[in-house]
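FW: tagging you since you asked about this chain on Friday. Here's the raw sequence from the shared folder, copied in full. Didn't touch anything.
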Amino acid sequence: MTANINELNKSSQDKPRVLIVGAGPAGLFCADTIKNHACVTVIDKGKNISERSHSKPIDLSSGIGGTGLYSDGKLCLDLEVGGFISKIISIDKKLTLERKIADTLLRRAKDIKFNYKNHNLQTNHSEGLASKKYPVINIGTDRGATLISKFIKDLSSDGVIFRSESNLKKLERAGNNFTAHIINSEVSFREDYDFVLLAMGKIGSKQQQSICNELGVRSQKNPMNIGLRLETCQDSISNLFNDSDDPKLKLILDDGSYVKTHCASNGGFVTPVYYEEIYLTGGHQYSNKNSERSGFSIVWNGLRLETNELDDVIYPNFSSYGKALACQKVSDFLAKKMSTKEDLDKINLSYKDITAANFWDLLPEKLNLSIKEMLINLSKISKHILNEDSVLYGPVIEWWMSTISTRNEKMETSVENLFVAGDGSGWSQGIVHSAATGILAGEGIIDKLSSQ
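HL: got it, structure written out here
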């Protein structure tokens, strides 16, 4: 069935029509920026927030609220980390964006207190590792859905239209406007819009790049971050969390590549998240419960997307595991020895649906060597990290998205009135950076409207 339902978007005939594809941080903050200037429709191929479940991996990576705001909601309040836009905006703009994002979210989570004072980005070096410290707020997985629901309710009250389970199948240029082909509940619609923002997140990054390529927008491949997630007894690495809720540690390797920690959780839980064809390893952290286990991902940036290792090696090796994440004791990993399910079951794992593995048989040797070197260096500053209750889950894959080219800092592509934002655009990696790109795109749309 095909229909044209433009009348749904014409509640205000004198306002331009804007389609935002993706209801994650980038899409929501763009909608919040332009809600008084345009008729805004936000679509997302995932479920509504009220129907998403933290027990379902597909719901963790797709749906209203996006991936980030439905995870542990970790707000890394410094745009020097988590993306690239600090390279193209002024320091004053950077500070303005950071404060606006925090204030917008925290006024909907009033039990979280935060003081901006004495939170400056610092980089220290110890035992060959660079340690980056910056302000971090953990909203907590349990509070994420509540915060999103309040945000969506406020935006809806201001006239923003939300449609879940709606997938953009094709975007065509129609003169100075766009025609969007959307599938919702197996019904196909064609709608016309004056502006389009593609903010399709990690899970939609390939589709977003394909849509842009069809319209002639270029993109640039990035080094991929791939690795494993360490988990150990909370007390074993408590010192790493003394100065930050999300310790960032980096080791530069001899070949110029690096290995670093990412997405730390203190007392959190390992969880599978479905992306592409496999289940990846993620981490959640709650404000109302503690697993007594802590950890972080350890990722290496030496694998390039130009190779076929992702499709030819990594995906096939893990595709049969399903939600049963591959797991190996750290001591066995260092010895290149297969772990046994019996030994793993003796450990108080935060995620117990695991398959005993030997990552040396599953991942490229260079990747495993870089993780091994990082573990040895980490043990110099946190000696219990190599204890017998320390394990590795896998795989972890970050930054597989290509960066879509934009003509300016307002995130407009080479196609006039087509904007990109968020993790799916390759410009950000995380809530705050993603939200910042959404705000910039919104400001770009407003600038275009004011010049007309």
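FW: The mean pLDDT is 89.
HL: agreed, and The chain has ten helices and 24 strands.
FW: great, closing this out.
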